[in-house]
Amino acid sequence: MPSFVPKPYTWGKMTLISPETYFFLCDFIDMSNKLPDATKLGALLAELHRISKSPTGKFGFFMSTCHGKVPQAVDWDPSWTSFFLKLLGQALKQDLENNGPWLALEKISDRVMSAVIPRLLGALEAEGRSVKPSLIHGDLWEGNIGTEFETGNLLIFDAASYYAHSEMEIGMWRCERHRIRAKVYKREYLRNVTISEPADEWDDRNRIYCVKMNLVHSAHHTNDIVRQTSFEDMCFLIKKYAPWSPEELDDLGFADEFAKAVEDAKLH
User: Fold this and answer.
1) Over the chain (268 residues), what is each successive 10-residue block's mean pLDDT?
2) Residues in Cβ contact with 116 at an 8 Å cutoff, skipping those fewer than 6 apart
3) What Cα–Cα distance (Å) separates residue 86 from each residue in 34, 37, 162, 190, 263?
4) What is the rounded CA–CA span in Å between residue 170 and residue 46?
5) What stretch of H or E contains 38?
6) Alpha-carbon distance 53 to 82, whole Å?
7) pTM of this prediction?
C-alpha cells in the first residue's frame, strides 16, 4: 500500500562522530494535522492488516524497531502469546528503569505475565484457532497520521512496526491521552474486519494491548499518570482471569489498593 505512506528514498549514517546520528529521506507531503477521516482510516488500516504477509510466517520483524526512543523485543516467534509476553516484558523493564521500583506493580505484572496472558491470548491459539501475523504501524495515534491538503489522502508515518495480531494496532486507541480514542475510530475499523475468537474477549485483549502502549509512554515520561492506569488495567484483568484468594491478597500486602484499582479500571 505505497499510497498510505510517504515514499521513502534513502537512509544512512552521518559522518558526525558524536553523537552517533542517522538520517532518513522521504517525500515532503503538505498535510493537515487535523483528526483523520474515520471511515477512510478504518478501511485503509483493515486492508493493510488483511493483505500484509509475514515473510517468515511468524510474529516479529527482520530488524530491531523502536517505539519512540525505546527498542522493542521483536525477534521472530511463531506464537503470538509468546511474542507478546516478550514485548510486554520489555516495556515493563523500560518502565521500571525510568520510574524506579514499585513493588505492587511488579507483583501485578508477574501475575499478568504468568497467568493472565497465557489464558487471555492463549485462547486465540486454542481449539484449532490461529492468529495471522499482520503488519502493524505500532504507534498509530493522531500525531502520526496526516491528511494531504491537495488530495485528501491519509498517510501514516513515524512507525514502530512489526508483524502482530492485527488487534494490537488499536490498543493505542484506548489511551486516554489521545483524541483518536473516540469511539467512531474503533467502530469504523471493526466494520472492516472479523474480530478474532473468542469475540466476547475482544475488549479485554484491547485492554492488555493498551497496557503495553501505556507502559512505553511511561518509560518516556517520568511519573506520568499512565503508569497508574496500566496498574489498574492489569488488576482488572487479574480479577477476571486469574484472581487471587482473599488470603493471598492479604499476604501480598496491597488488598485495598488492588480492590480500588479494579474499580477505577472500569472507567477506562
Assistant:
1) 94 91 95 96 98 98 95 98 98 96 96 98 97 98 97 96 98 96 97 98 98 97 95 98 94 93 94
2) 208, 234, 237, 238, 241, 242
3) 35, 34, 13, 27, 28
4) 11
5) helix 38-51
6) 19
7) 0.96
